[in-house]
Structure formats: C-alpha cells, structure tokens
Amino acid sequence: MKYIDEYRDAKIAKKLVQAIEHQITRPWTIMEVCGGQTHAIVKYGIDALLPKEITLLHGPGCPVCVTPIELIDKAVEIAAEPEVTFCSFGDMLRVPGSRHDLFWAKSQGGDVRIVYSPLDALKFAQEHPDREVVFFAVGFETTAPANAMVVAEARRRAVKNFSILVSHVLVPPAIEAILSVPENRVDGFLAAGHVCTIMGFEEYEPLVKKYGVPMVVTGFEPLDILQGIKMCLRQLEAGRAAVENQYVRSVKKTGNLPARALLEAVFEIVPRQWRGIGEIPKSGFALREPYQSFDAERRFGAADAVENAETGCISGLILQGLKKPNACPHFGTTCTPEHPLGATMVSSEGACAAYWRYR
C-alpha cells in the first residue's frame, strides 16, 4: 500500500488546500474530464475541502455513459442471435437501451459472457469455431490499443468467427464540444491522465490556443487531483493558458508511441454519436478497411437510429457539466443503481453512481 498511501497523505492534502486558499482571488469553475477522477473527488470529499469560490464540474469522461442507445440496442439484438456468444466487460450489462439491456438478453437465453480482456473473447472464438463471438469494444483512447491489438491478432490467426462492436470515443473533440457552446462556463480542465498515458498531450495544445483555457493532465489519487487543481488555478489567476502535466510519473508529451502506431494502423477517426450529447465530429474510432471483416456492425447490420424515449433522465446535461446529479428530481428516488434511468447511474465511473455511493 506504500505507493498508494503516499498519494493520500492527509497532511499534504491539507497543505495543498491551504495553498489553493491563498492563491485564489475570484470564483473559478474547473471540469475534471474523467469519471475515475469524479469518483475520487466525491469519495474523498475533495470538492468539500476546497474554498467555496471553486466549483468542480463533472465532464463526459465515462465511456459507458456516453455509449449511444443505438449501439446498446444493436448489442442486445446481436446477443439474442442463437449462434452468437456476446462478450463484454461487466459494466456494460446494465446500461439501458431504448427498451432493454444486455442482462435482459441473457435472461432471454442469449449467450452473454463477462470477460476481463478482449483476448478472452478471441480465445473463446478459436475454441468454439461453430459460434460467432462478438466483443463489445467500448472506451476512450485508454482501452482502444487492447482492442486494436486483438483485431490485429485475429487477422494474423485468420479467426473467421470473431468480430468487435466498436464504440470508441475520443476526449479532445468532446472537450471542444463543451467549449464551443454558448452555455459553457468552464474556466479550466483537468485532463484524464490514463488517456494521455496513451496519446500524450500535444493534441490539447491547439484547443488551449483556440479557447484560452488551461488544461492540466492529472492523475487519480487525492493528492494528484488537488495538485492538478492548484496548477490550473495558478494559470487562471495569472491570466495564462497552457497545457501542463501533473501526472509526470505516467505521462509523456508524446504518449505511448507503439500504442499510438497500433491505433493508427487498425482504426480511423470518424464522427460518433455520444449519448445525451449528440454527434461530435471526428470523435470516434472505426475499423480501417483491411480490418472491416471484423466489424460486427458490418457482419450483423448497422445500428438503427433510435427515438429517445422521455425518461426524465438529465444525464446529457450532467455529462456536459451543465447540471450535477443531485439536481435531477429522479436521483435516488425513481433512479437508483437497481432501477437506473440512465447510464450515469449504472457505470462504475458515472457521476450519478458516485453521488449515490458516497453522498
């Protein structure tokens, strides 16, 4: 625990809070992009420790939460096929589609399996050549290299009964979508450290230059987040805007070059629908032409557009930082983890789930 506890030292946290109190002269609003950071902030009460002049907003950095209803419906449809084994990480099984979720498909006899790696799904496909095996490839740039690797490996091994349902989304276009709307009230960002471990942070520099908003690449422990906030406030108070790296123990400016090369080889950048937000240009990955035989949407048919059913869920506003979970009239009453109205209550990284669990 030594290497975890040193980033949760209460005495150092108190000193960072005192330093923040001394440096601010006016109200500021900072958004943490990552759902993991949101959970750490709420779990450790970081927002309650900060001066009242500082507002923390929770951004769209929960990949489960932003997976569009159309793809959940397509996943349920594929999982219901009698010859299909549908593999997914566990946090996707409770995410509601327009009518059902993957647990419902399993209850109806669908072969839905929780796996811990996309390689588990590929291994199952090789061991069961009579089954169509589909892996639900969800996530930001953090998880995309593993899914690119499994597709490249499936091609190398000539596995014909394996495909992935792709729902990969990218962080920088989402940040720009937030900054470009008139309702935006974000003064600075804490960028997701694990995404930048893969991608680096060079692609944030044009956004900083265009919008004049500081961005600090930040880790996930309490001291990481407090230091990231302090660095962001230092820029704001000085009237500066730059990309800074708090998470130096993991992130390099250029990221992980072999992982980036693999992503470039297997995926191309396309527009993507974001649940509760809509389509964001150049915000997702899709398989390039040499790998499209492994695309589950091509194999089983593309996802159909869905008319959003009115549930009263305000997850779209929460994901854009325009509302907080406890501003929703359904929070904790008609919307709970057992009976969620939206994905932000389901996901282990969702803001609503964080407020439910810790508040």
Sum this structure up briefly.
By secondary structure, this protein is α/β, with parallel strands linked by helices. The protein contains 18 helices and eleven strands. The protein has two domains: 1-325, HypD, alpha/beta domain 2 (Rossmann fold, 3-Layer(aba) Sandwich), CATH 3.40.50.11740; 326-358, no CATH class.
Q: What key phrases describe this protein's structure?
A:
359 residues; alpha/beta; Rossmann fold; 5-stranded parallel beta sheet; 18 helices; 41% helix; 19% strand
Task: Please characterize this protein's 3D structure.
With 359 residues, this protein is of the alpha/beta class. It contains 18 helices and eleven strands. The protein folds into two domains: 1-325, Rossmann fold, CATH 3.40.50.11740; 326-358, no CATH class. Strands 2-1-7-8-9 form a five-stranded parallel sheet. A four-stranded parallel sheet has the order 4-3-5-6, with helices on both faces. Helix 3 (35-43) runs parallel beside helix 18. It starts with a helix and ends with a helix. The model has no long low-confidence stretch (mean pLDDT 94).
